[in-house]
Design brief:
globular; 5 helices; six-stranded mixed β-sheet; mainly beta; 6% helix
């Protein structure tokens, strides 16, 4: 027998309040569906779940969903991280924000600062849509720190006639470490769509890098030509006047519109990050694009020729949009920056809601930012990046629990006794007996997303951890490995997250996420999962693969929520070791609290 991961029941007996019904009635709907948001203005669709409110949520469940150590505003809608930087002792994060509601709308730049990337102070808005060139929204942008100490902020404005243009802003006072006031340049917009590029296919300028001569700067902007995703490169000496360089930095047919392009170097010889202008024999360059067509962030490693202004992927089969992703769950519109304080490159990403939009309105908020991650090249494989939560998150660790060398028989499940499972940092490792792996028959063609999830059994999997499980297993979210054997006799490892039974509610997304993951000879299989209420970020093999899950349980929250180990393989025994820490809440406070702290 398996471990009881059968189909979930669809039932409810609780009643939503009259206030909730009044709130949801304010959202425009057409034929029972929420109106499209974003696509009409030429940006990615912002409605993830189209459908009616089917489940009568309790206030307790909705209050529980709000995170405790991920960054999010106190209310309303948030999307892309923008212009992150470190300046005069403070980390700055700007972000896309709707000041009016918990749905996407006319976008302002929110602004927050932190000493450690974990505890944050909300500041007054960074930039608001107040000119003809950005009246429909101050959209995504990037910061560049110049050698003389100045800061340049380039962003996309949505104009009064719906065109996408690039705009320039700079701090009003560089002696202010909080960067409270920003000035928009009188020459705005400094860039408009060039010939052959659609008026709504021209957005999201990158951080700039120096040319080989050191006297000019280059930026990359995302676009498309028919169904080919392209990266346009402009050169400038002053960030006001620009020259469009011939050709493209790179293009990939069939990938559609490229948004939020990021382009940066990674060192081959160390775990340190590098300034965006670094290049040479000791570096590879990462080209990343957010694909509007499927709402995922793809990256590839390659070589940048500064003279020809061409980037070439190391492996054409793993090119941008057809190969590796930053995250195989809910993760989009990401942005990196170089942290000169600790000499590391840090990655931010937007984590969308995957429940019904009407429920977000009831909650009064939508979306969170990921825990910031360090990014380095994997020096073992040299074929992928390693992403890992910044070390500062460990300052939130509290009481710990350890379970060593736990033997899991085939078809077994084991509760790990801990009194609260809503805020955890979990590290787990797994070993299978070599004889079990050698004896299995060919089991090729496995795919996490089409496998049927953790209930689908094989000789060597699935096995792993279960988070946010209800005591009767009517709700549960397994995060696990599955090992398959290819026709050549080699083993293929898969890392998956199964949301198909994470909630009894019908109006939430419930996919199975995952990917194959490289495992080197002699390595144990490892998972680190950060559980923060409705978001679970899971890292396999030291960050070679990452899956971010949004989970909306109707029962498995607060005290009833449990953590389990499981082995649903049919023949293999698995030895597991787990260490868990309860996580304290981060301090995310308003501007007035900052004034008192200073």
């Amino acid at each position: 027998m398996g471990v009881g991961f059968g189909s979930r029941k669809r039932s409810a007996s609780i009643v939503v309040s009259l206030v909730s019904f009044l709130l949801i009635s304010l959202i425009p709907f057409t034929a029972g569906r929420p109106i499209s948001r974003g696509a009409a203005l030429g940006v990615s669709e912002k409605v993830v779940r189209l459908g009616d409110l089917n489940f009568p949520w309790t206030n307790a469940a909705l209050l529980w969903e709000r995170t405790s150590f991920h960054f999010q505003p106190s209310k309303n809608w948030m999307n892309d991280p923008n212009g992150p930087l470190y300046y005069n002792g403070w980390y700055h994060l700007f972000y896309q924000y709707n000041t009016e509601a918990a749905v996407w709308g006319t976008i302002t730049w929110g602004h927050a600062i932190s000493r450690d990337l974990i505890h944050w102070f909300h500041l007054p808005y960074g930039m608001v849509p107040d000119h003809s060139y950005d009246v429909n929204g101050v959209w995504t942008g990037s910061a560049t720190l110049l050698p003389d100490g100045r800061i340049v902020m380039l962003y996309t404005g949505s104009t009064n006639d719906g065109r996408q243009v690039q705009c320039l802003a700079f701090p009003a006072n560089l002696s202010d470490p909080l960067l409270l006031r920003w000035v928009k340049h009188p020459a705005n917009p400094v860039l408009t769509p060039p010939p052959g590029i659609g008026y709504t296919d021209f957005r999201d300028p990158s951080t700039a890098w120096l040319t080989p001569g050191g006297d000019k700067w280059r930026i990359v902007i995302g676009s498309k030509v028919k169904k080919t995703g392209v990266a346009l490169v402009y050169e400038t000496a002053d960030f006001v006047d620009y020259k469009l360089l011939d050709g493209y930095l790179h293009e990939v047919p069939g990938t559609g519109m490229w948004e939020c392009i990021d382009f940066y170097p990674v060192r081959l010889d160390s775990g340190y990050g590098s300034d965006t202008s670094a290049n040479g024999p000791g570096f590879k360059h990462v080209l990343k694009a957010s694909l509007d067509d499927d709402k995922h962030d793809y990256y590839a490693l390659g070589t940048y020729d500064e003279e020809s202004n061409r980037w070439t992927p190391d492996d054409p089969a793993l090119d941008v949009g057809i190969g590796l992703r930053y995250d195989y769950g809910e993760y989009y519109a990401s942005k990196t920056f170089y942290d000169q304080k600790k000499k590391r490159r840090i990655l931010w990403g937007w984590i969308r809601e995957t429940d019904a939009e009407r429920v977000d309105v009831i909650k009064g908020w939508a979306s969170v930012q990921s825990i910031p991650r360090t990014v380095v090249i994997d020096r073992k494989t040299r074929a992928n990046l390693l992403q890992w939560p910044v070390e500062e998150v460990e300052s939130l660790r509290g009481e710990s629990f350890e379970f060593k060398d736990v033997m899991l028989e085939p078809g077994s499940i084991l509760p790990l006794h801990i009194d609260s499972a809503s805020q955890l940092d979990i590290e787990a490792s797994f070993e299978i007996e070599e004889g079990d792996a050698a004896a299995i028959f060919v089991d090729s063609g496995y795919n996490c997303t089409t496998s049927g999830g953790a209930a689908s059994r094989g000789l060597l999997g699935p096995f792993g951890i279960v988070v946010l499980a209800y005591k009767e297993l009517s709700e549960l979210t397994p995060i696990y490995f599955y090992i398959a054997k290819k026709p050549n006799g080699n083993l293929e490892y898969h890392f998956c997250a199964d949301e198909s039974r994470s909630s009894k509610a019908l109006d939430v997304s419930s996919p199975v996420y995952g990917s194959s993951v490289p495992v080197q000879k002699g390595e144990k299989l490892t998972i680190r999962s950060l559980v923060d209420h409705s978001i679970v970020e899971s890292f396999a093999q030291g960050g070679r693969r990452v899956i971010t899950s949004r989970v909306y349980p109707t029962q498995a929250f607060d005290e009833p929520s449990k953590i389990l180990l499981f082995n649903n393989a049919t023949s293999a025994k698995v030895k597991a070791t787990v260490k868990m820490w309860k996580m304290k809440s981060a301090g995310i406070r308003d501007f007035f609290s900052l004034n008192q702290a200073l």
